[in-house]
Design goal:
Elements: H1 16-19, E1 24-31, H2 36-46, E2 53-60, H3 68-75, H4 109-115
Parallel strand pairs: 1-2
Helix pairs in contact: 2-3
């Protein structure tokens, strides 16, 4: 209250030293959305500094819907591979018993690393 500037202080993006370190966070909520993968690919392709773009996607899918992370990696030519313990399971659109909170442990470490 009473401050002349918003908190936290705004960055002066006119200053090249500040602008060269700026990043952006993109958050997407997707309910059975089919265009998220294409939106992400387009966003990264158009970004002048894609390494400074950070993305978070919260998705709610039905069983037959494509997972955004799987679709994104496939589109990049580095498809994710399920660990053997997850192969053939139904309901992979939902968190599985004993799975890590982010659901990334269902993929082999190599395929997950290759997608980055």
């Amino acid at each position: 209250p009473g401050d002349k500037q918003p908190y936290p202080q705004s960055l002066n993006l006119s200053n090249p030293a500040v602008e060269s370190k700026a990043s952006i966070l993109v958050l997407i909520a997707a309910l059975r959305e089919t265009r998220t993968v294409h939106a992400l690919v387009s966003m990264f392709n158009q970004a002048e500094h894609a390494e400074r773009v950070h993305v978070g996607v919260v998705q709610q899918n039905s069983e037959g819907d494509e997972d955004v992370l799987e679709g994104f990696c496939k589109m990049l030519g580095t498809p994710l591979v399920l660990r053997r313990s997850y192969e053939g399971r139904s309901g992979l659109n939902k968190r599985q018993d004993g799975e890590d909170p982010w659901g990334q442990g269902r993929y082999t470490a190599k395929s997950f690393e290759d997608c980055k």
